[in-house]
Amino acid sequence: MAKYEIEQLIQLRETAYVPTSVDFAEFTKSILEERERQAQQEEESGFTGGR
Amino acid sequence: TVLDSKKEFNVKHPLNSKWTLWYTKPANNPKESWSDLLKPVITFSSVEEFWGIFNSIPQAGELPLKADYHLFRENIKPEWEDPENSKGGKWNFQFKNKDININELWLRTLLSVIGETIEDDDNEVNGAVLNVRKVAIRISLWTKSSDRAKLFPIGMKFRKVLKLSDADSLEFLSHKDADNRSAKPLLTV
Ligand SMILES: [Zn+2]
Ligand SMILES: [Zn+2]
User: B3: which residues sit within 8 A by CB, 6+ positions away?
Assistant: First the structure.
């Protein structure tokens, strides 16, 4: 069976092939937007809390 | 073009198993159920696809709070109710110190799972989970059984993958104890 050590896999990083079945740009955008929204909420609650 | 790149892609490094990446998005309103939030992203079976996917998605440290990544063998759901998981549990570590390189540690976890060097040949490891929470970032390894003899060597390897120090202890919790907050870990290494 095929086993690959961590170091071996890291050396293969440049063989990367991006499957076209998923829109990764859209996936990433929605995640980063959520994070941004949380950061804004945090900031707002910080102000009302009188920090 | 897409067609050209499809033609050029031939798998030179197949993985031993097929893996599915799942993502849990943070709940924003109470009407959203667990199944609305937890979704499979993609299934892959080669080293080439793994890197293509990994390079295209947010890193562990970029996820919002209450988000999870799950990487599980194809056809195993990342829930303890799944029959492949229900008799098992998880090796679990909580990183409370924000100075650690979570991107590297999560990547090392993924690589040890898809390369299958985290275990011997018995497919005991069902998947890996990253939970991003306010108090800590948690990385877990989910197993098929709660058989100490099988779990012990996996736990010892997982310690190295996570670069734990001698002062850190890694705990194995059975899924059947998941609801019991006072349950003791089945194993600690
Ligand atoms: Zn090769
Ligand atoms: Zn989860």
Answer: none
Q: Does B1 lie at the interface with A, CB-CB under 8 angstroms? A: no
* Closest C-alpha among A20, A50, A46, A31 to residue B7: A20
Q: For an interface test with B, give the residue of A1, A5, A6, A23 to mutate (most B CBs within 10 A).
A: A6
Model confidence over A1-51: pLDDT tens digits?
689 999 999 999 999 999 999 999 999 999 999 999 999 988 888 765 544
Question: CA A19 to CA B42: how far, in whole Å?
Answer: 9
Does any CB of chain B come closer than 8 Å to the CB of residue A42?
no
Q: Pick from B51, B62, B108 the residue to mutate for testing the A interface (most A CBs within 10 Å).
A: B51
DSSP state of B185: P
Report the pLDDT value the prediction gives residue B166, as an integer from 0 to 100. Answer: 94
Domains and CATH numbers, chain B: 2-188 (3.30.760.10)
C-alpha span between B18 and B26 (Å, rounded): 26
Report the 10 Å Cβ neighbour count for B14. Answer: 13
> Which residues in chain A have their CB less than 8 angstroms from residue B117's CB?
3-6
What HEC string does B90-141 produce?
A: EEEEEECCCCCCHHHHHHHHHHHHHCCCCCCCCCCEEEEEEEECCCCEEEEE
ipTM of the complex: 0.89
Chain B contact set for A1 (CB, 8 A): 16, 116, 121
- B62 and A31 within 8 Å at the Cβ level: the answer is yes
Could you give the angle at which helices B102-114 and B148-161 cross, rounded to 10 degrees? 140
